[in-house]
Design a protein that fits this description.
CATH topology: Rossmann fold
Mean pLDDT: 94
Helix content: 25-40%
Number of domains: 1
Largest sheet: 5 strands, parallel
CATH architecture: 3-Layer(aba) Sandwich
Number of helices: 9
Radius of gyration: 18 Å
Shape: globular
CATH superfamily: Thiamin diphosphate (ThDP)-binding fold, Pyr/PP domains
Length: 291
């Protein structure tokens, strides 16, 4: 895809995020909207994967450490063909495959790790990256982490270990939007300059606008070219929570929450999507029956 196509795809995925959360009347839409551009570029241009073979040994891996933003990952996986699109409308339903935090217990095709307990994902991704190196596989591991979870200690232990073990097949994507569930990160616990911190730990760091497609692609291209450097890569992406929807952008109250029908129509219009979803959410059925 070229940049214009990628932008249109990202807004399609944003629209799905809002439909998913509104249908469930629960979810975390804000961060998901902000991460859409980075995930679109990754999954449609750089990630080596095969929806027909989700267990392919030589695939690249993606770990969503900030698991509450899973509506955007589910939208991507459905669009890429990992599972039927109809499963999106069962999000957060009892017995459904797609829950509010990703769980491998439900055998979601394309999902590499359970997440939601913040601070763990970078360590999980590091283990995968080390495993790929030990098996001499040309596989890369990407891990999305939020700035809020970088207030915790474990990610920095993983950051130290990644440099020590020269894990140059690991790329951390930092969702640096300055917002968390209780307010702005500067007020809750200031994480300060995350790019400088990762540089100080010994990582290759690209500090970018997380909505600038040229910058996103340049950062991913640089990561791919860094194999053999012995250094992991961090893409510190300044993003906007609620990106693309005027009444949601940069407001902590949209970290979590469902839209009203009127808000959904306005949001879809701003994203250039149809006001009414042509597919009606099923009341039962899907890969997993209601319990």
């Amino acid at each position: 895809m070229e940049i214009g196509e990628l932008k249109r795809k990202a807004n399609e995925l944003r629209s799905d995020v809002l439909r998913i959360v509104t249908n469930a009347n629960s979810g975390h839409p804000g961060g998901a909207l902000g991460m859409a551009d980075l995930l679109t570029v990754l999954y449609y241009k750089y990630l080596r994967h095969d929806p027909a073979r989700p267990e392919w040994d030589d695939r690249d891996r993606f770990v969503l450490s900030n698991g509450h933003t899973c509506p955007i990952l589910y939208a991507v996986l459905a669009d890429r063909g990992y599972f039927p699109r109809e499963e999106l409308w069962r999000f957060r339903k009892l017995g459904a495959m797609l829950q509010g935090h990703p769980s491998t217990a439900w055998k979601v095709p394309g999902l590499e790790a359970s997440s939601g307990s913040l601070g763990n994902g970078l360590s999980v991704a590091l283990g995968m990256a080390i495993g790929a190196k030990l098996a001499a596989r040309d596989a890369r591991v990407y891990c999305f982490v939020s700035d809020g979870e970088l207030q915790e200690g474990q990610p920095w232990e993983a950051a130290t270990a990644a440099v020590h073990h020269r894990v140059d097949n690991l790329c951390a994507l930092i969702d640096w939007n300055g917002v968390q569930i209780d307010g702005y990160t500067k007020d809750v616990m200031n994480v300060d300059d995350l790019a400088a911190k990762f540089r100080a730990f010994g990582w290759n760091v690209h500090e970018i606008d997380g909505h600038d497609y040229d910058a996103i692609m340049a950062a991913f291209t640089s990561f791919l070219a860094s194999r053999g450097s012995g250094k992991p890569t961090a893409i510190a992406a300044h993003t906007v929570l609620g990106k693309g929807v005027s009444f949601m952008e940069n407001l902590p109250e949209w970290h979590h929450g469902a839209l009203s029908e009127a808000q959904l129509e306005q949001a879809l219009a701003e994203l250039g999507a149809a006001a009414v979803e042509s597919e009606s959410p099923p009341s039962s059925g899907g890969l997993f029956p209601d319990v």
